[in-house]
Amino acid sequence: MSGPEETNGARTWTLPYTRNLIAPVPETTSPNDAPPAQPPRRRVLSAFVDDHTCESAAHVFRVLGDRARLKTLALLLVGEANVTELAGASAEHMSTVSHRLRHLRAEGLVRQRRDGRHVYYSLANGEIRAALESALEHAGRLQPWWPGERRRARE
Hints:
Helices cover 50% and strands 15% of the residues. It contains seven helices and six strands, in the order βββαααβααββαα. The strands form two sheets. A three-stranded antiparallel sheet has the order 1-2-3. A three-stranded antiparallel sheet has the order 4-6-5. α4 (83-90) packs across α5 (94-106).
């Protein structure tokens, strides 16, 4: 979570993906001024975090939590591909990749386009692309978490 940002004498609390949804809250200028009815941070959090949103996000993270599904989606960052191309790039059986793509399509993360006898898959939208790019970029900056790799990273 980001902290307060000063903009023209007003404090704005921001959360990722909510920058344009939050109105500036003026700071009090003297002890006699009444404080806001609800602190800005709490107002933003209560508007942003509800049970349905959290459950939906948790479901997406569970789907993305599988390494093979994440790798398939990462391969689609390059552009659309068919099952044969994805199976070759990931060194997996076509039936395995096809089953995984069917699951990702049912979850709304990929879409398909038929061209004659071939079916091409791509990421469903730009939001998914941005989330994947951000997650992979962030993961590239992290230290490895598995014990064998952590030992090698320190040496």
